[in-house]
Structures are given as C-alpha cells and as structure tokens.
Amino acid sequence: MVQDYREYLEKVLVSEEQIQQRVKELGAQISRDYAGQELLIVCILRGGVMFTTDLIRQIDLPLAIEFMAVSSYGTGARQSQGEVRIKLDLDTSVTGKHILIVEDIIDSGHTLSSVIEILQTRNPKSIYICTLLDKYERREVDVPIRYCGFQIKNEFVFGYGLDMDEYYRNLPFIGTVDLEKYEPPRG
Q1: Catalytic residue ranges
Q2: Residue 40, in any domain of the structure
Q3: What percent of the chain has pLDDT above 90?
Q4: Which structural domain range is residue 139 located in?
Q5: How far is CA 105 from CA 11, 30, 51, 102, 145, in A?
Q6: Residue 51 pLDDT
Q7: How far is it between the farthest Cα atoms of the chain?
Q8: How many domains does the chain have?
C-alpha cells in the first residue's frame, strides 16, 4: 500500500500558481533568446516531463523535442550516487543544433555534466540547461544553467514531476518531505 502524501508532506515549497507563473516567464525568456534559431529541447525523463510539457507550450517559436532517460539514483536512494547510466538515448542528430536540456532538479551536477559530455561529442551548436529547481548547496560539478525556475535549499522534495519512490509526480505543487513520517511502499 502506498502512503498518502499528506501524511508526510512537511510543507508546500512551491505552489502550483508560483510554478505556472515562473514557467510563463521562462518560456518568454527562451523565446526571446532563441528567436530565429533552430532549438532542440531535450527532456530528461521521467522527472522533467511535467515541466517540459508546460514549458514548451509557453515557448513561442518552432522547436523539436527529444527525450533522454538517465539514472544516477538507486532505488530508494535519497541523493545521487554519482554513477550515471543512459537508459534511453536520443533518436535525432544534434549536429549543429542549439540544445536546451530541460531537467526537473539539479543538485550535485554529476548527472547533467555526464549528459553534456556525451552530447558535446555529437557536435551541437550550443548546450544549455533549463532546470525547474536548483539545489545549489549540493553542487559539486559546475553545469551551464541558463534558465532556473527556483533555487532551493538542500531539502528532499517531491511533486510536479519529482517522485517519492516513483509516486506523486502528478501533484501540481512541489512539497518537502518529513522523512521521519515517510514509509516506503511495500511490495
């Protein structure tokens, strides 16, 4: 049985209204910055899906979208272990294209640093990052964040694409977890 998130929700960190307002602002900024250029959005699965779909509807220019699935967390892990595995790679050539990687959260930076290294070998015109959340206190590797929704402290968060043991990605807000009250799903 999966525990109801309300039992361990410590607080709503970013409300649905705050997220949607910031997504509109980011979409407008990206539209201005990439005007007249070919843009390829690379959504990092699974956490980046909600943010990406809301964001691309706010970008007023032609764009293509691709997906990558990468993993640096083991099951039940609460922070990145630094070992990155590509689980799903791009189907499209990125040669000569402007790539905007869309991610749900960046903490240590190891995962995205590895993704960027891989993509740079494919000769894109540029690679930048748009992240919903920047957990800057945990940064160990510098990554080129061009667009950031919100900077947050080192708290465990879930909702709006971010999971709690693969659940609750569908929540419209971002909340923090009281780990003392959280019980991992059984089964």
Answers
A1: 107
A2: yes
A3: 71
A4: 15-153
A5: 18, 18, 10, 9, 11
A6: 98
A7: 51
A8: 1
